[in-house]
Amino acid sequence: MENYPTIFQASSSTPAASHLSMLNMANSHAGAEFQDQKLNQYLGLMPPRTETPISFMNNNIVAQRNNLGDAGTAEVKSDKKYKVEKKPRKPKFAFQTRSQVDILDDGYRWRKYGQKAVKNNRFPRSYYRCTHQGCNVKKQVQRLSKDEEIVVTTYEGQHSHPMQKSMENFEHILSQMQIYNSC
DNA sequence: CGCATTTGACCAGCGC
DNA sequence: GCGCTGGTCAAATGCG
Asked: Which of A167, A149, A158 is nearest to A9 (CA)?
């Protein structure tokens, strides 16, 4: 399995706290300052396969990215029906959250299009696509086998539309993160 | 009825 | 070349 970087480690130990609006920071034009100035800067310039965590916001939240490239928008059609992305692929952003539930409400609507068993993991990986027309943002959701409270959500692409839910969720998540990080 | 989910099949990439 | 694995498709099914 590819080792996607973990952008955030957050906690939402109750289902009611599973809103993750901060995802928008890394994937849309919603305009959080640190997205452009810090996150993109770091993420765009990280050397290949760098494992060094980069801290921002506070010392307990790390951002990492592998070098998947950013020229991956080109797609080719195989001789059959499948659309296959060329490599290098789009940048991916992984969020690691501690949650009882797999489905994190990040303010966007997602449609599940696949599920696969993962090697060395007793939990399947689920594949989701943003249902907004023209927006082909994808995400994968996977629960860790060694710690089944940890849910890794991997985002690919940028939303081309505003999120459909209010930013209240974001504040809620931020407070959750602060609680988590103070532990 | 419309939309979301499930699930088996298919395809591509990679390592051996 | 072959097998394994990840990613996607699409028909069937479920649900409000």
From this structure: A149
φ/ψ of A121, rounded to 5, equals -145, 125
> Which of these ranges, A38-42, A57-61, A168-172, has the smallest mean pLDDT?
A57-61
pLDDT tens profile A118-170: 888 888 899 999 888 777 788 898 888 777 778 888 888 877 776 655 555 55
Rounded Cα–Cα distance for residues A27 and A133 (Å): 16
Tell me which nucleotides of strand C come within 7 A of a protein CB: 4-10
Nearest nucleotide by C1' position to the A129 CA atom: C8
**Do A136 and A4 meet the contact criterion of CB atoms below 8 Å apart?**
no
Q: Are A11 and A180 in contact (CB under 8 A)?
A: yes
pLDDT top residue among A32 and A174: A174
- Strand B: which positions are within 7 A of a protein CB? 3-14
